[in-house]
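Structure tokens please, single chain.
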Amino acid sequence: MTFLESLEKLKMKKRALMLYCLLNRIPIIAYSNSSLDIDDFIIDISNLINFRKELVYYTDFISNSEFQELILNENNDYQSLRIQVRCPSDVAMKAISQLDDLKSFIIGLQYPKENNELILIKELLKLKTDQYLEIIVNEGKIDVELIGFNEKLVNLNFETAIFLKISEKTEKSINKMKRIIKDKINKSEIDINLKNSILDFNLEKGEIKKNIFYAEIQDFYSGAKRAFYILSKLNFLNYLEINATIGTKTLLETIDFEEGSIQRILIFIEREWGDNFIDLISNDRLNFIGDKIQSFWG
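Here you go.
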């Protein structure tokens, strides 16, 4: 079973919330009774996002000053891949206590045996971030909760659509392959059990789902980056006192990504590259403002 298939045990909203936090670079704190299990789990989560550069805390950098330098370099170079930091359980407390910022961190923690230890961890987290996703992995069960913000106020339409599309496209792909094979074996005298075995694509299904997921996420990222380029240039024109705005429909058609909302793209741009371009959109402004209050930073 692939990691994406294991996530299907979660309710759709929880799956979508996990993806939302990954895309928005909201810190993810994952607990398990087993350090080995949680370290494997955060590797799987990190692998869901393939358009960022993964760094491992205490391997690729150690000190807070090194991390701040990485952030500074990222802010000065829009062309570089944004970083995503994976923090194994054996150094998790070092990261939480010593680093100033946990943005885009995925941290694995062995669940504390004493309640006061858990309280200490949560108090430290409050000092570093006002919003994070908490995941508890226990005996194959996964619980997900957004800390510091009301989940009901988060718009998960895009993330939900991604998972629905994965299921639909996977079934279509499997059915097409089955039809091809059926056309061949129905004309033969192969044993029925062998036919059923040949037509069983359960092993392949996981790989197909993963490929579709990566394709959908990459399409969104590429579309958002094209929007970022356009809006950056329009923003520059405004600095030159040349009034430059763009309509929602025009922008979505220009970036060739009409499946998502412009609100979701603007949220992603702000979290990925740090720029807020809401004032450059010439229509639906009230909708943007409402969505921003609900979803940008909490």
